[in-house]
Amino acid sequence: MLNRDDRVPQLRLTFIQYVILGVFLTLAFGLWRLQVMSSQYYGELAQRNRIRTVPILAPRGKIFDREGRIIVDNYPSFTALLLRDQSRDIDADVDKIAAGLHMSQDEVRERIRKFRHMPQYQPIYLKDDITPDELAFIEAHRTELPELETIMAHRRLYPRRGFMANLIGYVGEVSEDMLNQPQFELYSAGDVVGKSGVEQYYNDLLMGKNGSRRVIVNSLGKEVKPLDEVAAVPGQPLKLTIDIDLQIAAEEALGDRNGAVVAMDPRTGEILAMVSRPTFDPNDFAVRISRENWTRLVSDENHPLLNKAIQAQLAPGSVFKIIMATAGLQEGVAQDMKVNCQGGASFYGRYFKCWVTAEHRVHGEVTISKAIYQSCDVFFYTLAQKLGIERIAKWATAFGLGQKTGIDLPQEASGVMPSEEWKIKNFHQKWFPGETISVGIGQGAVAVTPIQLARAIGAIASDGVLRRPHVAFPDQLPPYYRQVMDYNQENRVPLDEKNWEIITDAMANVPTAMGTANSAHLEGIDFAGKTGSAQTMSNALAERLGHAHSMKDNAWFVGVTPRRNPNLVVAVLFEGGEHGQFAGRIAAQVVKAYVEKQRRLPVKVAGVSGPVEVAAVWNDPHGDDADDIQGGRFYVGVPRYALKPERFQVSSSKYRRGTRSWQLRTEN
Amino acid sequence: MARNVSYRDFDWLLFAFVLLICGLGVLEIYSATYNTKFAGVHIKQMYWIATGIFAMFLISVVDYQLLLENVHWMYLVSIGSLLSVLAFGQRYLGAKRWIKFPGGQHFQPSEWVKLILILAVAKYFADARRSELTFFDMIKAGLLVGVPMLMVLAQPDLGTALTYMPIALMGIYLGGLQAKHAGIIVLVAAMAMPAAWHVLKPYQRDRLTSFMQPEADRQGSGYQVIQSKIAVGAGGIWGRGFAKGTQTHGMFLPVPQTDFIFAAFAEEHGFVGAMGVLLLYFMVLMRLIQNAQTAPDRAGTFVIMGVVAVLTFHILINIGMVVGFMPVTGIPLPLMSYGGSSVLFTFLALGIVMNIRMRRFVN
Predict the structure, then answer these.
(1) Using the beta-carbon criterion (under 8 Å), do A49 and B252 form an inter-chain contact?
(2) pLDDT band at A656 (very low <50, low <70, confident <90, very high)
(3) How many whole angstroms separate alpha carbon A561 and alpha carbon A597?
(4) Which candidate in A479, A554, B140, B159 could, as Cys together with B331 as Cys, close a disulfide (CB 3.0–4.6 Å)?
(5) What is the pLDDT of residue A6?
(6) pTM to 2 decimals?
(7) A143-188 residue pLDDT tens
(8) Cβ of A46 under 8 Å from any chain B Cβ?
(9) Is A24 in Cβ contact with B274 (below 8 Å)?
């Protein structure tokens, strides 16, 4: 039998009790630390664990022409999202994600890096416009890659082949540089914003506000039930003053030539058409433009991304003679001036040629009227000498040359109108009277944009009334835009009626057998204008560089219809067009299209019904070229099928990779 | 030998505490699984508990002296069963831990080997009857526990293997550990650590490293620790309410009905509830030690203290893991975690304790 003295020492058992007490106090401390000290922190983590926030992308506002026809539409597409807070380890999944979405691993990492400053719950826009097989990949890997999600996005659908591209502009993802600037502080990474043209200027209006939906998910990323939803606020539609019919006519008239066309209603300042060549396809930007495509566009010496109608600053050439004539008549200098043109004249010891010598003839005795329609250089050299640079600059400036017109488009160029003050300020040199002679024919330091010329000539034909050009109707705009820009601003430069008639009558002779643009004649239409051929470099420079390098003159034409109080002014810049009448023919086509449309239109009845949607001139961004713009006949093509999201069914078997054509199934 | 065995001497208070813990466990198992593919396992758990209670009463009838006298046979059978697991065991989740019986029942021998070891160690030290242990005694005790431990480690089941250690430690300590020997043990253990690292399976190493830096391994066991801490922390003081834990029900918390049941409980019942459970466990252990003090003989004390050692170790490792103090080892929380083997072991161990208590007034 065992003896009670063999018992285990009591002390050791007590020690064990204290050890156990210690263990329990440690565990209690562990619970205290988590549940009392930092329960809020862990509560938030638990919340974030189970709630997934998925954005609802707001569609951008559509853009319509003045008659309510769609110019820029949206089409539905799917975007792949990366939800960082759903992933246990994104780095480990990068290769799988990259392979499934046909991206490089670096691309995926770069996307993640770009969004690194955003809170974890903010989704990363991984890839736009994903293909059906990429969509299927995401659906099939819900469990393994719970961080991938798809949402429907509305992508911009622009007219194809660069129609109106320089005016409309394009959209793109907001860049990191932009995000660092204060004016973009309301944007967040991944936002699609307008980057040029109307898309940029009216971005705040068009953009809308993304919504979001929150859903409760389990650890597999599976949606258990919806929590709440903040609806997206779609962008507002924008109605432009552009008339698609006239735009088509202008696009067709300029064709493949480099240059620009601006058609404006000088009574209101409404821009009816605006073309710039060469152009680009904004659909390339709608998703994400490839680097090589971008490099090509940026390095092209013909500047396809520039809207030449407002950004080309060039010598106006002889078109400037209208300003000269106005200045001369208003200052009382030109009325009775008679100049004998013998092909040139000497001023300040230098001989200045008249263009007419190139045709081996002379103008003979020239009055102000003949000087305009025959574009006699000698007359205007003489007039310039008489007026002096200050009076020329005063009148040119009064008609808006050398200044921004204030059009509602971004990055408008100001041009240059030289004066004594300008010379001193910029070159710290006195103005030499000899320089005034070249300015008299729109050469020298004078540089204007097509929109400035259209506005100035339109104003002179409208008895001195200058309107601010604009491409959007102000009544649809929020107060902010109306405050920034006075759309109805009117400046009046009073003109003597007699002078007004002399100038406009002489302009009406330009596109006739008597004038410099007889090939631009329009029978039965009161069409007036002025040609211009502007050297792109000085004669001296051209001689030094030799014939091979001498550039062809730029052809200009600014025309109005009718000649007095016109309802249309068209400015045409034809780069390298050599003679103004070639630009004149382009302007004549636009004017003809305009007048014919006016005549065809029934008399407007007050209170016409709302805008008529005839859909876009094009069908889908990747379609073939068969359904083209029916230029010249003012035919607006009706799409073969309407792009409606509910009808947009993706079928991977019908999708052929590489052909870039969505097979759309419509239920009939 | 006149014996005075009666259920009057059964420790009903201890039994009440144990049932209370089991009840809370069943409720939490129900809450954690009611909407999952495991729904209904709380019923199974109740069957296990009922079986356990029955086994407890059954074993309390057999004199523990009889058990101790035959412990060497049982020890040999345990070694045999562990060998058979290694040879014919069911492979599940990469480890051979279960033997499948023809009736379809799975059996995990490593659990009841624990029980045999408690008895074997108790027998060894009770017989040694020395106030101070020699070094040779300790080697023998170490081998007694070490051999089955290495076999379980080979399954591989690090967690269960570790639970054998406190049995040996408790025996050595109560058997009369000398201070200098304690020093040597600590020294040897420290030196053996790097060697042990090489013995560990990759996933075991992974668990240890992820315990050190849970953020570095968000996918694997580090994820489990993080989610467990979130669950516990989100519970706050008062808890999120019965069956309202989002961590538990969103499947963020891994295996909330077994290893992480305490995290699920702490999420739904908060600091107050969790402390209540801790207190219950503490009461159980204190009550056990009291029984050890009143045990009729040296062997009885050793047996009960062996049970105390195993239970304390389980509680420390499991709740320590749940609050982020311990690595993920896959050790269940006794009485609360779902699982037949664990429940059966605990009740059998308690049965032996009752057995000893009922025989405290010998002679």
Answers:
(1) yes
(2) very low
(3) 13
(4) B159
(5) 65
(6) 0.64
(7) 778 788 888 888 888 888 888 999 999 888 887 777 777 666 677 7
(8) yes
(9) no
